Amino acid sequence: MTPPRSYRLICAAALSALAAFAVACNGGSSDAATKPGVSGSSDGIRIATLTPAAENVQPTAETASPAPQASATPATTPETPTPQPPSVIPTGLAFQPPQLRQGGYSVIYLYEPALNATVYFGGLQYPMLQDGDRWWALVGIGAFTEPGLAPLTVDYAPADGGNTISLAQSIEITDFDYPVENIDLDPQTSELLDPGTVNNELAVRAGIFSAYTPLKMWSGAFTRPAGGPYSSPYGVARSYNNGPVSGYHHGTDFLGDEGDPVYAAGDGVVAFADHLDVRGNTIYIDHGAGLISGYHHLSAINVTAGETVTAGQLIGAIGATGLVTGPHLHWEVIIRGVEIDGRLWLESGAVGP
Q1: pTM for the whole thing?
Q2: What b-and-e string marks burial along 158-179, b requiring 16 or more CB atoms within 10 Å of the CB?
Q3: Average pLDDT by stretches of 10, the chain with 353 residues
């Protein structure tokens, strides 16, 4: 139910006064001046300017009562301690990281009592999972996504009943400089670029990615899936046989010899273990919450669909099957069907809530 116009005007006025007071307490600078719809940030988490109830706004350290002044009170009388302000409970939406770089990801948090919640972003739906008094979901974008402010909406059913509530906010997408490379293919390998072959494989992948497991199975950063160095990073724009750029590298390549071990990057369940024409022998692991990792061009597959695996477990071997010019592991990290830069999950420490 939409609140009366008079109520909304009172809330808007109260928020404006609070925002102006916060700027004054912080020396006259505020991130809200340059990031529309954002009231501030704390430890990298950006809180959206959604309306908290006036009674929930707690005093900050700058507004706490001053310590009592010295007086003639006898020394035997204990000094009254200075009151400490209680912790401020966030409300509304928060993004961590607060921006999305091209090929990156963010965790969207909802701090509202809810029965269920869903994020709508980039034409996709991201069901949210509950974590204590908050809800969360992973979102990701591809390497060619246009930079700028991108709209994001969260719909949730209030915990006390009533109609669905929608919270709208924007998240900033920042540019990332990816290089361009040309790959020379022999005539036989080039046949794998036939649109029919490519589209058939995309349909198989779409079916795998459409499944959603409402459970977080991984913990912290991912384990390296292979021991060799990077040979081709995610996001490199590609042309084949000196033709026009037709796309970009959707994964991270690791150098290796035929038969070198391949490991599960995180805990999960094997969603697919079979052959694909372009990506060769392939394993997909579902880590829950819309997160999937892919292992391609394998010479051996040591797991089966439906099998539970743990981080660091041997699952296959490096090979040269599918569209390749030599043996290597092509490794992908996918969020709801969107391939992102997997190196972020290897190098960023704890990932997710």
Answers
A1: 0.72
A2: eeeeeeeeebebebbbeeeebe
A3: 40 37 34 32 34 32 35 40 47 90 95 96 96 95 94 95 93 89 73 80 94 94 94 84 78 96 98 95 97 98 98 98 92 96 81 68
